Amino acid sequence: MTPTKPHQLQLNEQGQLRHFLTTEGLSRELLTEILDTADSFVSVGRQAVKKVPLLRGKTVVNLFFENSTRTRTTFELAAKRLSADVLNINISASSTSKGESLRDMLWNLEYMDSDMFIVRHGDSGAPHFIAEFVCPHVAVINAGDGRHAHPTQAMLDMYTIRRHKGAFEHLTVAIIGDILHSRVARSQIHALNALGAREIRVIGPKTLIPKDIEALGVKVFYNMAHGLHDVDVISTLRLQKERMESALLPSESEFYRLYGLSTEKLAFAKPDAIIMHPGPINRGVEIESAVADSERSVILNQVNYGIAVRMAVLSMAMSGQNADASNQREDA
Ligand code: CP
Predict the structure, then answer these.
(1) What distance in Å separates the CA atoms of residue 219 and residue 60, rounded to the nearest whole number?
(2) pLDDT in tens, 34-77
(3) What ligand 1 atom has the least distance to the C-alpha of 278?
(4) Domain of residue 108, residue span
(5) Which residues are registered as beta bridge partners of 11?
(6) 332 C-alpha vs ligand 1 centroid, how far in Å?
(7) Which of 66, 151, 252, 265 makes the best surface tag, with the fewest CB within 10 Å?
(8) Are 295 and 246 within one domain?
(9) Does ligand 1 lie within 6 Å of residue 315's CB atom?
């Protein structure tokens, strides 16, 4: 049997989202629908009562096998603002420490009438694996898997770009730093390509840029002066030391000297270029503190937009699951 690719698994027969595992293979129309739906949710955070009833009666389970600050909390806020019940599973205090397998754990959670699993895992492909064996009515959302994908991060980045810069067709976007270990960079590249960005660049040392990255439709630069020339959007990445198997850099200070986004290097970009970072930021390693806190930085805006974007993804996936379930009832 041919294995199901994540982008095939994540859509129902009508082409609606039912899981969200990757931005790879998704159409411009679907990604734009996520951004437009997020637009309609931004105002919810400004209401006196920050709630809409779209997921009332649904149970959303946060399953974070890796640490997180932004993604876990903004998924929780997003689900609560949609009126869902939210379970946060503390993995280190769960029965996995007594030898229970992932599959058994999830089957138990399914029998608690869960409707949605939000999964962060250190292994690439874990959310895809889960989406293949969960009950048909359960939606799986990838909250970051290994170095593979972080699709909701990419979509909140796309939302931030569209909000601050408008149409993608006019934009040159540079992604700087540890591209090799970055699930965010991969998901951003797929989304930027689908949304029609004029040019996508990656900038970093040879040791931190995958050899075949040009096949994804990006231009590679090893020099910040050339790579940042005339860019509209800069997305910096931290060094993901937890995923490095060997020493790939002489030192952090050498990395900062060559690739750290300093005020001096920022002058190569367009004067109105925006600065993004998925977080967590390491000040003085990939970004100068003054740049991270400058008026051109939209790093904290990204976090805020992340709630609306995750509300959009949760509500669209639930609606795709419901459409599937009603089709199956009609077929029965
Ligand atoms: N951007 C991001 O994934 O941050 P967290 O690891 O804090 O969730």
Answers:
(1) 39
(2) 999 999 999 999 999 999 999 999 999 999 999 999 999 999 99
(3) 1
(4) 6-149+304-325
(5) 17
(6) 42
(7) 252
(8) yes
(9) no
